Amino acid sequence: MDITAKTILLTGGTAGIGQELARQLKAKGGTVVLTGRNIERLDAMRGEGFETIRADLSNAAGVDALVAELGEREIDILINNAGQLIAYDFRKGAPDADATDDGIYANLQAPIRLITALMPTLKSRPEAAIVNVTSGLAIAPASRQPIYCATKAGLRSYTLALRHQLARTGIHVIEALPPVVDTQMNADNDLSKMPAAECARQIVTAIEKNSAEANIGQVRMLRVAESISPALARNLMIRF
């Protein structure tokens, strides 16, 4: 897909992978409309020439407000990048049930609801794409993040089924599976981290090539392990 002159809706575009995606897609000639929750970060991205929309995607009302803000805007590429890392470890204390619900909605329900709402405009375009950013943890979970892993695994399953449904349309369905990336979300993670700019570059390349999956960095090795033995992949990851 040629990104030039495409209109792109990018959720979670004010920091980390999303911020780098916004900059790289703009450099390719795309018009990027990005969302976020933090006013200062939105202002900073607006200062770089991006159109921004403040949106809370942790509930249905927030998703619907975003769709209403878009109005009749024609979207060529939807990138569901926004996500929340939910603290959920009984070894450290009782999890916050409300925060858990918000995270489940943001990571899984919001992308599904947004895709549903924007499907008519995506189908109307000569060529379109849906990019769902999941995680290597969608393949095999880590014990420290059960809710995050579950939501990303759910989004992966949804993406696989959606790709099959849309196979005869002009909509490409792409799953991006990042490894541990050097972002604020992973500030407390001691594992080796991929630079956000490199992760974004590989996602952009996958869009340009109409790839079904972008297995990024160490996720490629995890996919090999899974192909040999799903149990091996699970045993490698669960202790983290």
List strands and helices in order, with pairings.
Blueprint: E1 7-10, H1 16-27, E2 31-36, H2 39-47, E3 51-54, H3 60-70, E4 77-80, H4 97-124, E5 128-133, H5 146-165, E6 171-177, H6 196-209, E7 213-215, H7 219-228, H8 230-237
Parallel strand pairs: 1-2, 1-4, 2-3, 4-5, 5-6, 6-7
Helix pairs in contact: 1-6, 3-4, 4-5, 7-8
Description:
With 240 residues, the chain is of the alpha/beta class. It has one domain (7-237): Rossmann fold. It is 47% helix and 14% strand. The protein has helices at residues 16-27, 39-47, 60-70, 97-124, 146-165, 196-209, 219-228, 230-237; strands at 7-10, 31-36, 51-54, 77-80, 128-133, 171-177, 213-215. A 7-stranded parallel β-sheet has the order 3-2-1-4-5-6-7, sandwiched between helices. The radius of gyration is 17 Å and the shape is globular. The termini are far apart. The model has no long low-confidence stretch (mean pLDDT 95).
Shape: globular
Average of the residue pLDDT scores: 95
Question: Counting H and I runs of at least 4 residues, what is the number of helices?
Answer: 8
Unreliable segments of 5+ consecutive residues? none
Q: What's the helical proportion of residues?
A: 40-55%
CATH topology: Rossmann fold
CATH class: Alpha Beta
Strand arrangement in the largest pleated sheet: 3-2-1-4-5-6-7
Summing up helix and strand content along with how strands pair, one would put the structural category as: alpha/beta
Corresponding CATH architecture:
3-Layer(aba) Sandwich
CATH evolutionary superfamily: NAD(P)-binding Rossmann-like Domain
Count every beta strand, where a strand is a DSSP E run of 2 or more residues: 7
